[in-house]
């Protein structure tokens, strides 16, 4: 894939409660993924988990920020507009070992 591919994941206006469910579910899924990766890397491979810990901290902060924003919207009787895209590029796993295609 030479050009990034973009996919629409979320595009809509939601009640604060719906937005909370949608957004926090996405973040929780990422937290769960990183927790499993961290456990696997630490237990099975004895690898450094500092990067995983940093990412988990970022995701937990994001979770709280989104929860707070949705709670604020609910208190004000507002709806929440959410737009979310996935951008995907395919890249060689080891760029130095890939030969150009002619």
Give an overview in words:
It is built from two helices and two strands, in the order βααβ. It is of the alpha+beta class and 102 residues long. Strands 1-2 form a two-stranded antiparallel sheet. The model has no long low-confidence stretch (mean pLDDT 89).
Question: Brief description of this entry?
Answer:
The chain is of the alpha+beta class and 102 residues long. The protein has helices spanning 16-43, 50-75, and strands at 5-14, 80-88. The mean pLDDT is 89.
Question: Which regions are unreliable across 5 or more consecutive residues at pLDDT < 50?
Answer: none
Helix content: 40-55%
Structural class given helices, strands, pairing? alpha+beta
Element-by-element helix/strand order:
EHHE
Write the layout of secondary structure elements.
Blueprint: E1 5-14, H1 16-43, H2 50-75, E2 80-88
Antiparallel strand pairs: 1-2
Please name the defining characteristics of this protein.
102 residues; alpha+beta; two-stranded antiparallel sheet; 2 strands; 53% helix; flat
């Amino acid at each position: 894939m030479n050009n990034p591919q973009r996919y629409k994941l979320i595009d809509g206006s939601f009640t604060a409660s719906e937005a909370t469910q949608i957004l926090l579910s996405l973040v929780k899924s990422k937290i769960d993924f990183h927790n499993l990766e961290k456990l696997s890397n630490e237990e099975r491979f004895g690898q450094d988990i500092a990067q995983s810990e940093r990412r988990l901290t970022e995701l937990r902060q994001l979770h709280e920020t989104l929860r707070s924003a949705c709670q604020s919207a609910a208190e004000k009787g507002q709806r929440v507009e959410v737009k979310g895209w996935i951008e995907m590029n395919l890249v060689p796993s080891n760029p130095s070992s890939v030969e150009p295609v002619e």
